[in-house]
Amino acid sequence: MGQRSVRWGILATGGIAAAFAADLVDLPDAEIVAVASRRREPAEAFAERFGVTRAYGDWESLAADPDIDVVYVATPHAAHRAAAALCLTAGRNVLCEKAFTLNAREAGELVALAKEHDRFLMEAMWMYCNPLVRRLKALVDDGAIGEVRTVQADFGLAGPFPAAHRLRDPELGGGSLLDLGVYPVSFAQLLLGEPDAVAASAVLSAEGVDLQTGALLSWESGALASLHCSIAGGTGTTASVTGSLGRIDIPAGFFHPERFVLHRDGRDSEEFTADPADGPRTSLRHEAAEVMRALRAGERESPLVPLDGSLAVMRTLDAIRERTGVRYPGEAVTAAAAAG
């Protein structure tokens, strides 16, 4: 792909889709050419809001649009597999919101489809594309704090959320883990890779989704990660990485930090801050720019958000749910059918 504008389609019209569209406007080489919803009215309202010329009342028309280079899938988790698969099969490249899918099986199916159709696929783990998070990872990889011993991270919202809210709805993949816990898990695995053992406990709602979950991940190296997520109480959303030679602390909003502090044994603390030129800390433009860079380079996945990493995170989320008893509609039936 040359240096012409990358043409985006946006599938779904909720809050995250609107945030992504607003940030795409800031990229001079990005163009939103179409938006789709399951009903025409919200698609048309979204199109009018963001100056998009095509509004589809079904997903199939968006997937079939030959003028689209890449589709951003912004549906709830439960629809990620169906929506992304539709687009990949139609020959579209895909950026799919996190959590990637409901479970690792679905994620594996999407990766297989992307390879079968020779299309680009990436999970929208924007934290991995954040410049300051990338700087933190580089420091850790370069041995700034020695061998990583522990990772601590939390993400909780105060709520309370009514039973009808999407975060409480099993049909939509509700609960704190897939919506919020994916960040602490992804942060730990960014630094340590897939864990060798997983322990977890959760408090479940009457609907059977997790109101809050605590997980302890461990690695054969001796490293541990203590992680927490909640939709029943607002947490500090902080993170800390401790190594054999020092520590890195990230204050509130660790997944889109304004700063972090490096403490090294025998040395003064160092503070690293976000570059104002990188835009607001909530900006999704870095992941969009990475998708466009990869497409222009002819890559089928991003080195910043590799598919193997996304699959590994989904396996960990599956393991946590296995230990806490959270099941989504259709999962047990699918597992039984597969066993049969």
Would you give an account of this structure?
The chain has 340 residues and is an alpha/beta fold. Helix content is 36%, strand content 24%. The chain is built from eleven helices and 14 strands. The strands form two sheets. It has an eight-stranded mixed sheet with strand order 8-9-10-7-11-12-13-14, with helices on one face. A six-stranded parallel sheet has the order 3-2-1-4-5-6, with helices on both faces. Strand 13 (259-264) and strand 14 form a beta hairpin. Helix 4 packs parallel to helix 5, helix 5 runs antiparallel to helix 10 (307-324) and helix 8 (176-192) packs across helix 10 (307-324). The protein is globular, with a radius of gyration of 20 Å. The relative contact order is 0.15.
Secondary structure blueprint with pairings:
Blueprint (H helix, E strand, L loop, with lengths): L5 E6 L3 H10 L5 E7 L3 H11 L3 E3 L2 H6 L5 E4 L6 H10 L3 E5 L6 H13 L4 E4 L1 H4 L1 H11 L6 E9 L19 H17 L4 E8 L5 E9 L5 E7 L8 E5 L2 E5 L8 E6 L5 E4 L11 H12 L10 H18 L6 H9 L1
Parallel strand pairs: 1-2, 1-4, 2-3, 4-5, 5-6, 7-10
Antiparallel strand pairs: 7-11, 8-9, 9-10, 11-12, 12-13, 13-14
Helix pairs in contact: 4-5, 5-10, 8-10
